[in-house]
Amino acid sequence: MWTDFLILMKQEMAVIAMIFILLFMKLGRDRSNESFMNTMNVLLLLNLILGFVFNHEGILFNEMFRTSRLIAFEKNILNLAMLIISLQSYSWLKTNKHVPEFYILMLSSLLGMFFMISSGNLLMFYLGLEMSTIPLAAAANFDLTKRRSSEGAMKLIFSSAFSSACLLFGISMLYGTTGTLVFSELPHLINNNPLQLFAFILIIAGFAFKISVVPFHLWTADVYEGAPVAVTSFLSVVSKGAVLFAFVSVLYTVFSPLAKVWYNMLFILSLLTIITGNLFAIRQENFKRFLAFSSIAQVGFILVGISRSSDISTTSVIYFVLIYVFSNLAAFGVVSLVTAVTGKENISDYKGFYKTNPGLSWVLTIALFSLAGVPPTAGFFGKFFLLIAGAGKGNYVLISIAAVNIVISLYYYLRVVKAIFMDANPTPLPSIRTPLMPKLAFIVCVAGAVTIGVVSPVYDYIYSLIVLR
Amino acid sequence: MYSLHAITNSVQNWLNARLSSTWVLIIESLIVIVLAIALFAALGLILVWLERKVAAHMQIRLGPNRLGPAGIFQTSADTLKLILKEGLTPDGADKFLFNFAPFVVMIVAMLLLAPIAFANGFQIWNINIGVLYISAISSLSVIGILIAGWASNNKYSLLGAMRSGAQIVSYELSAGLSILTIVVLTGSLQMTDIVQAQQNGWWIFKGHIPVIIAFIIFIIAATAETNRAPFDLAEAESELTAGFHTEYSGMKFALFFLAEYINIFIVCAIGATLFLGGWMPFHMGNWTQFNHVMDFIPSSIWFFGKTFFLIFLIMWFRWTFPRLRVDQLLNLEWKYLLPVSLFNLLLVTLIAIMNWHF
Amino acid sequence: MGTAQILFWSLTALALISAIMVLVSKNPVYSVLWLIVVFFAISGHYILLNAQFLAIVNLIVYAGAIMVLFLFVIMLMNLNTETEPQKSIWMKFFGVVAGGLLLSFFISFVISSADLKGKSAQLKEGEIGLIKTLGKALFNDYVIPFEIASILFLSAMVGAVVIGKKD
Question: Nearest to residue A432, comparing CAs of A378, A385, A364?
Fold first, then answer.
């Protein structure tokens, strides 16, 4: 029975073990930042490899913890993203005073996300959500000397506290009207009680905050701009990805009787999100804000894919998140390196980047093309499958508006590419020598962004995981 | 011998025979109220006199010896003086809160009297979560102190109140964890169950090592929670004038002063109940003859004896140890007492499961 | 009306009035003190539902620890109405409209919800709130949330120390 727990919860146990190793390392003798980072990178790599072996299915503790091969794969995507972020933040962390605390906060957030994804009970889900938010609120303030950082962290804390309160209110009303919190029992108990509908709206509001869907996106730009780049990349990729996985799972299992209600809702929300994200991204000057609005637009596309509730949409969402990990982290990696070395964050500072850093500018270009959805890169395939999934309901208005918006988004992505390659700049950014760890991260990201689209077994593998679940 | 239990039973029967049940309830409540206030007054007088005499004899002097034999009327004279003093409210102080704070502290002290068993069957309220109730109410006393410090419109009062509040909140943790060791051994939170479980010996003897550690930690934490030396940084004269009750004079100061001594009595009473057996006489295992002899001494005398022994211990500390600075104080709690209490809790759980206690 | 009913209605009235006073008080310290009264009223409700452990833990954690924390911060900040930035009158108006709409929706949902009508809670009976039952449930069914909450607190402490420590 003991081995049952250990094997089923192996990924959570691995992350908890890493947190405790970090704590004991910190309490021990004085170590340099490099030793912490090297240890952590090796451990994260081992964690990633662990995620591929011994995957069993099972339900523990009265449906508090469910695991299946699909969930293990989702967790592994987050592990991969964590490893890449850890590799990329090497230059920033080398001179930082609080390296072990950074890793502890990130790993606690990751642990919370693991529990949120594999929860079968709304209580555990809420706890996982809180556990993923609170360390991030502290980590967003990691640049202790900058005021922007504190402002962003304050906004994150207040907004996430309020949205968690809305989510909890919805959950408690759902519990009050149905009498159970377990995912598998809830769909049978949802009749068309107006109070349940109100609860549903509040729960969707809580989710929509975390994935930055449009009426709830106001925190995104300021927090992404204020937080250090490693934390921003974590927020934009890992946090968003985990909540998307949980969203898909909750929406399809718990709220399946309300399918007609949320189809219309997702239709409007996705349109609003895509259009607002695109319009605001056009005007941005700061690179991090720009990437924030671009990620809002990407979420709009994901909502298009979710709106048809079936296995194809789950597959396309997971596939897109995997591709999004690679492309977004490539872009954030370059920004992280440039910010750590020079401290400059504006798009206009990147003019003439190609002259001094050809390698990095190619990485950034491939990343931006992938985010925009230009064909040979994987981003095209991700968006393609999302739109195909969304078209399944026959609502061609949605698809055509989304397609038009893809073209509009090309404008602002190519604006950056133009600045890098074509604009002249008397004082370009200095030539940056990439250390080994970020170089590895860039290689992985670029390889992923270029090849995953054309390597079809990936999509089929994900589909098989979902169908056989 | 007469036991208080017999007296209460006879009073209850007498009342029930004559009046209807709601009237009985009201009259009994009134009796309890009068007794509690009388206890407070008596305890205040006795404890202040005791403190001055103990302090004096430790410093090889005589202490109050003019008013009455061995100076026992000294406190009454002091109380009369305090009543006649002018009660001054500082300019700019928040009048309502300034007047309200001493009452909050007094109310908390009175509420804490409820679950304490003074003698066999002589308890105001026997709730089944007695120990937890004590933790809850003692954590409310901080609010009274903070309000007093803030409402005085005085920087030093506020600082003293903050220090005092931080100290009380920190030491509550260790005190709660040491109380938990006894709860683990007894298996119940009810005060009567805890005292009954000590029928064949007090917990300090039965649950050897962890209970002794818990007792020591409890005494240290209790001294810190009541702001007594060596933890009286918040109210020592040479430090912050008088901390949170600097601006109080006259009757309001008398209430604070009284509440402090009542708090000392209450934490010692709790320590005596949990660790030293409360009203249970000193029994040893199943030596029935010996136990029978010990039972002759009435239970109230056992209880008050143990409590006053602990009070003497706390007063002894005042003149033995030097005062701790506030950072040393908080260091002591968070870096030393709390880890030891947590480890002790694990130890006592192991002992309770393995049945290694007597 | 029995004693339980009288107690219920008076505790409810106390909770609602104190909650409104929390919002309306001009002095933030008064707001915190009224909030403490709200917590006492809620603990009273818990005791009526025979959940004694929950009532006492509510007092220990909320009124005894969290409110003390609030008091510490507010007392050191010296807030008064002159230093508060005032929002424009239109914002306040729309805030009132939005809040009032939410309240009216909520009330209409509760009223029109057929299966909630006529049900009343069990007073002073039931085993759920007793410590023994609670302990058993906590360590059998709900052990994962219980343990994960402790790691959550650890990471929150690490985060707080990173932000707050001065060096």
Answer: A364
